[in-house]
Design goal:
Length: 129
């Protein structure tokens, strides 16, 4: 009788372990994300109706390029560097690397935390796509 109870508890414990570990291991895969390094202020419509740098660049006080705008918004307007993939915006854990590629189209390889939409960056390379 004791062995049956033990096997019952062992089976339940094994199933619970699998149920908990499966989603964790799925989120640990590296993925490639194709997008543009922007800033959270423009990408999230804080001061941009088009989710781009257009409105800010028209002012001409912050520079002439998307990179100028992104760096300005991060430095002076409380933004952070993000990866814009069409209408999706991902936070990046490596802000110094994102600064290097500000305003550029890139491929970011990393692990996505789907709950926070944050990518743990493993690599970032420019692309022309």
């Amino acid at each position: 009788m004791k062995s049956r109870r033990f096997m019952g508890w062992a089976g339940i414990l094994a199933m619970m372990t699998i149920a908990i570990a499966a989603p964790l291991s799925a989120g640990e895969r590296s993925e490639a994300f194709h997008g543009e390094i922007g800033d959270s202020q423009c990408a999230l419509n804080v001061h941009s109706l088009t989710r781009s740098h257009r409105e800010m660049l028209k002012k001409k006080a912050i520079g002439k390029t998307s990179a100028d705008c992104a760096r300005y918004c991060v430095k002076y307007m409380g933004g952070v560097f993000v990866l814009q993939v069409k209408d999706k915006v991902y936070k990046l854990d490596n802000q110094s690397l994102a600064n290097i590629y500000a305003g550029q189209k890139v491929i970011v390889t990393g692990k996505l935390d789907a709950q926070t939409d944050t990518i743990t960056v493993e690599s970032m390379v420019p692309t022309k796509y």
